[in-house]
Each structure stands twice: as structure tokens, then as C-alpha cells.
Amino acid sequence: MTAKTKRPKTAEAAIAVPIVRYDGNEYTLQNEERLQVCIHRSLITDNGLTFDLQNRLLIPESLYCIWFGHAREEPRRKAGKHLWKVYSEHIPLFWHHREQILSDPKFFVTETPLRVYGFGKICLGILVKAWIDYPNTFCKPCLKCKGRSLVFSFSGSPMSGMSFHSVHCLDCGTVTSGISGGEFGAFRAAIKHIIQAHSVSNSPELLTLDQVVEILK
């Protein structure tokens, strides 16, 4: 019998990353994209990392992707959080200017953070049409003052129909969330009908939600 020859394990490529700051316990690294990550010196020891002659940290490619992947995602996460805050806080403003939003293409196509299964991101005009055309679905009584609340977010299961939705009261400003049975299909069907009835094309002048809020105020 012939003995099998073990193939030597291919060494993982290392990426040299400059150190821009060191305070004794933590190293701040900065890559070519000018993304920075701060790591404790124990991570260098635990991962067996070394330095090159230019005092750059040599990081295996897989570890580099993890560390700087988090750094790359952080600005996106913060931007998404900010967009959602602007969106959820200004539902009454959008309702008050509903006719202006529907009549002006640059307002109509403004992107919101609302996503609907099967349709992706929903623009501001589609949301306003949902409030107007489907009040029995997208308007709820406020649990606090019994006034009118508008649904501005929903998710759920296409199979069971169970949904989780958030509403903003136009009268007292209360924002609440709740679970309802069998409504996810109604939410999604309404959005589908509106999208099919209204051709949404990009406006020559695309506005961010921040800009729309500033103009409407």
C-alpha cells in the first residue's frame, strides 16, 4: 500500500495595516479606505499576530475582513437608525402635507426605511396613498386618546397572516406597536394594489427624507 502524502496547509495571506494610535492597551488601526478599528493588545497575542519592519500589524485576510467589515457596516447602521428616527417622528408632518407629497414627483418618490416583503423599499408617496385609500387598514384608533393613528411600519408572516405594526397618533403624538392577527395579508395587498396603479419613476431631483422634512416644515 502506498502511504498518502499530506498536502501542506496553505498559509493564509496577511494584510499589513498601519497603526495610527497606541495607548498601551489598545491599538487603533487604519486601512486604505481610512476605516479605523480599535483592538485590545490581547487580541494580537491571542491570534498570534506580528508586525512588519514598518511597524504595521500583519492581519490574516479572514480576520481583516471581520474587523474592518464591522467598521464598514457601522456608518450604515448609524445612517439607518437616523433615517428611521426622522421617518417615525414626522408621520404627522407627512400626513398634513399629503396632497403636496402626492402632487410633487420629487416628494412622492422619496425613499423611506419601510420595506415590504416582495416589494422592497416603499417610497413616501406609496405610504401616503395607503393612508388615504385604505383607511380601514392603515388607520387605527389610538390606545391612549382614541384619536386616529397611522400605520407607518408593518411586518409579519405571509403564511399565518400575523403582523407586527407600529402607529403614530395624529392627535396626541403617541407612538405604539402591536400584534394583530390576519392583517399582514391586508397590509401587503394594499401596497401591491397601490404600486400597480401608480407607476413610480425616478424624479430628476431626488430628495432625501431629511431634505423633505426640512422643506415641509
Task: Write a short abstract of this structure.
The chain has 217 residues and is α+β, with helices and mostly antiparallel strands. The protein has helices at residues 41-46, 61-89, 91-96, 98-103, 105-108, 124-133, 135-138, 184-197, 209-216; strands at 14-17, 19-22, 26-30, 36-40, 50-51, 57-60, 111-116, 120-123, 139-141, 148-156, 163-169, 175-180. Helix 6 (124-133) packs across helix 8.
Provide a descriptive summary of the structure in words:
With 217 residues, the chain is an alpha+beta fold. It contains 9 helices and 12 strands. The protein has a 4-stranded antiparallel β-sheet. A 3-stranded antiparallel β-sheet has the order 1-6-5. Helix 6 crosses helix 8. It is elongated and about 70 Å long.
Detail the topology: elements first, then pairings:
Blueprint: E1 14-17, E2 19-22, E3 26-30, E4 36-40, H1 41-46, E5 50-51, E6 57-60, H2 61-89, H3 91-96, H4 98-103, H5 105-108, E7 111-116, E8 120-123, H6 124-133, H7 135-138, E9 139-141, E10 148-156, E11 163-169, E12 175-180, H8 184-197, H9 209-216
Following the backbone from N to C, one meets helices and strands in this order, namely EEEEHEEHHHHEEHHEEEEHH
Rg, Cα atoms, Å: 25 Å
**Biggest sheet: strands, sense, closure?**
4 strands, antiparallel
Q: Mean pLDDT, nearest integer?
A: 87
**Helical fraction:** 40-55%
Residue windows where pLDDT falls under 50 for at least 5 positions:
1-9
**DSSP summary, beta strand count:** 12
- What proportion strand? 25-35%
Distance between the termini: 84 Å
Shape annotation: elongated
- The tally of helices reads 9
Major beta sheet, strand line-up: 9-10-11-12
